[in-house]
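HUMAN: Can I see a protein plus its fold?

ASSISTANT:
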Amino acid sequence: NIVFLGSPQVAASVLDTLLAASSSPDSAFQVAAVVTQPPAAKNRGRKLLPSAVAQLALERGFPGDLIFTPERAGEESFLSDLKGVKPELCITAAYGNILPQRFLDIPPCAGTVNIHPSLLPLYRGAAPVQRALQKQVFPLHILSVPWMQVQ
């Protein structure tokens, strides 16, 4: 069981790849839950819209009750729901929320990995790819996958 955490479009493309791979008959994993930011007011009408990740998950037929949108990743009700899914591995990609130790302790053996589209820790923050371009770091096909732990 894998739990995916992400919010913007760049993360939706990662989720799309995971969902496609998990639907293969010989897949060794399934995406058991999706965690994303809560719907936010967007555009001129300030209409509440789901994140790109939530939108993609729904479009792909992922069960809505397994798409979690906690305000904070340390909420007791969310952590309880997550434990119920029994994740073996959590994968984050631009989730946008700090994961507390109580969250990181839930996957029993594999833990949590963070997929990041830049060279960490050199380029991080709100616009890591843009900073790498400004500093003319090439090639930009870098993928950083550090294990997460509280320091």
The domain at 2-115 is CATH 3.40.50.170 (Rossmann fold). Confidence is low (pLDDT under 50) at residues 140-145.
